[in-house]
């Protein structure tokens, strides 16, 4: 079977690198490897992969520096592999521009699922203006939203928040990221705005607002939209 996607594995631990590469090849994906930030940047520029799996603790620096550099010219998916099991480290990676993270030791099944989410996001769709999920249809060209076939009356702020989440399907959007995008730089320290408006979105667009399926809380980090 011909490889369908190329995945760059940026990891300095040989055992973990071999395990990931073997797993990717089993999925008919081609694995590129790099052990340092410098080498990873060379690989990304020479042959852009479909997705990057990035260890944060690399011999020549912090993986967040790689993310920041790549984000100056590319939006390719980056999934962080981190042994730093604390919220601050995860938030720092996501704010730097990572699309998602997996904490070591990780489940291979979970890692593959998160890669597939990012690859789906890169596939072209018939139109970028129409989103459908669950009982919801959003036409961003017409600025219209329907729920179970009926008009859903969203305020301008609710609508901006909804679009920001939809545009980052599968990715964790941090509190700061959402506040900056929807309310602007003067409101990044007012997370209660976000809690209130997320509750309103769930009431209007989730079949069971108390057990949301699409607008999911990532505790201590932010929110994730799941189609």
From TrEMBL:
Coiled coil: none annotated. InterPro entries: CheY-like_superfamily, OmpR/PhoB-type_DNA-bd, Sig_transdc_resp-reg_C-effctor, Sig_transdc_resp-reg_receiver, WalR-like, WH-like_DNA-bd_sf. The keyword DNA-binding applies. SUPFAM superfamilies: C-terminal effector domain of the bipartite response regulators, CheY-like. Keywords: DNA-binding, Phosphoprotein. The modification 4-aspartylphosphate is found at residue 55. Residues 6-119 form the Response regulatory domain. It comes from the Bacteria. Residues 128-227 form the OmpR/PhoB-type domain. Residues 128-227 bind DNA. This is Response regulator.
